[in-house]
Amino acid sequence: MQIYNTLSRKKETFVPMEPGKVKMYTCGPTVYHFAHIGNLRSYIMEDVLEKHFRYSGYDVTRVMNITDVGHLSSDGDTGEDKMLKGAKREQKSVMDIARFYTDAFFADCQALNIKRPDVVEPATNCIDDYIHIIQTLIEKGYAYRAGGNIYFDTAKLDQYYVFNDFDAEDLAVGVREGVEEDSNKRNKNDFVLWFTQSKFEDQALKWDSPWGVGYPGWHIECSGISMKYLGEGLDIHCGGIDNAFPHHTNEIAQSEAFLGHKWCNYWFHILHLNTSSGKMSKSKGEFLTVSLLKEKGYDPLVYRFFCLQSHYRKSLVFSWENLDNAAAAFHKLIARIAGLKEGGAVEEDAFAALKEKFLAALDNDLNTSMAVTVLYDVLKAGCSDATKLAAIASFDEVLGLDLIQKAAELRKKNASQSASSAGGYTVTGEGDPAIDALLLQRYEAKKARNFAEADRIRDELKAQGIEIADARDGVSWKRV
Ligand code: AMP
Ligand code: ZN
């Protein structure tokens, strides 16, 4: 596989340290609020990457942290403690907030078919591991004590800024959000490994350490958790592009200073989901969640499809119109799959040729939009329907769109609804069974005087750009 490595700033052939095995680490969510669909873009693309590795025959071990301590509102160690901010907002304890939003995060992941990593570890579970790393860093002269806190001394490194080909705007995130300068720091980009002197007198979670009672900085958790479960070397580390600096830069600094050798070979960064007013972010307070998409009548997998249609190394602009276009394309795709005849023999050669095309798309720096295009190539191919269904089922192991299951549901719905429409009610439109089925459901809802449901269906269709016109014995529809 060719994959872009932020470290070398070019596409490289992926070669894991141990043949056939991939050690993968993902920065997990900061659980002080719901994940927004921007965060989830990153987790969707990482999920596709993991599934592509598995599909290609690798044995993958994937580890993810849950940030439940230490992340301040600026990535540069200033501002408020995010967990405390969440706890105050909801008048709950930090632990309650962490538990609630961790569960909410995994519920969102489930709705989006994002597989749970093999190891999920809350940062607060590994305090001793961080203390051990920090102690070693002090002994080796890479860390110093000032004002009661322990800092990493970035001046001790030959090269601190290891990533520098991303947007200056992204690079500035940590610094820009910072409001106060920390006068304890010897160098501007030194970062906190352990806080004891904190301005958060009400900090709920504190632990004993050789340097006094306190809590770890944000960056140390990923180094500690990764080494605990994956050892001294990592094949690939993932996160959104805002994590590259300072978070990943600091992870590399402290891990390599601790280990005395290179730590991680490939760095996979996902560009942001933006709205018309800029990057979607939790701290701005206004953001879109999976629950909101569901409330508005969207299948969460429509959002996954929307993400797959673009490349992870390009910013993606979210708008309702763009999502509606994805919804229309997704439902049409399902309807076309539902139209394939089940049963019969799979033509092995044709299947292998399609699979080769699909793998080639993803092997090219995870080109998911090309992989989606291959789905349409399958539908157009000259092979048997059984071959097409087998190919689609196989590719969906990576794409995670529930294509076969949704097509089967649609087939069942259409079959039962054609019976219930025998009363003379007809739907005329542009030949899309998914739309026809929804209009038949709307008719059934109206008959049952369930007008709320009938209106919901009308609104869902409207959101997909479908205009309907009721007649005495049926309904007609068209795309506008
Ligand atoms: P957080 O919960 O803030 O620690 O972020 C969780 C993950 O989401 C990290 O990998 C971030 O880099 C990523 N992320 C944050 N904002 C966005 C965005 N607007 N688009 C894509 N990924 C993002
Ligand atoms: Zn991390």
Describe the structure.
It contains 17 helices and 17 strands. The protein has helices at 37-55, 82-90, 94-111, 127-139, 168-171, 173-177, 219-230, 244-259, 290-295, 300-308, 320-338, 348-363, 368-380, 385-399, 403-420, 433-447, 451-463, and strands spanning 2-5, 10-13, 21-26, 59-66, 119-122, 143-146, 149-152, 191-195, 215-216, 234-240, 264-270, 273-275, 278-279, 316-317, 426-428, 466-470, 474-479. The protein is an alpha/beta fold and 480 residues long. Residues 166-179 have low confidence and may be disordered. The structure holds adenosine monophosphate and zinc ion (ZN).
Give a short synopsis of this structure.
The chain is α/β, with parallel strands linked by helices and 480 residues long. It has helices at 37-55, 82-90, 94-111, 127-139, 168-171, 173-177, 219-230, 244-259, 290-295, 300-308, 320-338, 348-363, 368-380, 385-399, 403-420, 433-447, 451-463, and strands at 2-5, 10-13, 21-26, 59-66, 119-122, 143-146, 149-152, 191-195, 215-216, 234-240, 264-270, 273-275, 278-279, 316-317, 426-428, 466-470, 474-479.
Topology:
Elements lengths: L1 E4 L4 E4 L7 E6 L10 H19 L3 E8 L15 H9 L3 H18 L7 E4 L4 H13 L3 E4 L2 E4 L15 H4 L1 H5 L13 E5 L19 E2 L2 H12 L3 E7 L3 H16 L4 E7 L2 E3 L2 E2 L10 H6 L4 H9 L7 E2 L2 H19 L9 H16 L4 H13 L4 H15 L3 H18 L5 E3 L4 H15 L3 H13 L2 E5 L3 E6 L1
Parallel strand pairs: 3-4, 3-10, 4-5, 10-11, 12-14, 15-17
Antiparallel strand pairs: 1-2, 6-7, 7-8, 8-9, 12-13, 16-17
Helix pairs in contact: 1-10, 2-3, 4-7, 4-8, 7-8, 10-11, 11-15, 12-13, 12-14, 13-14, 15-16, 16-17
The site of zinc ion has 3 residues, from loops.
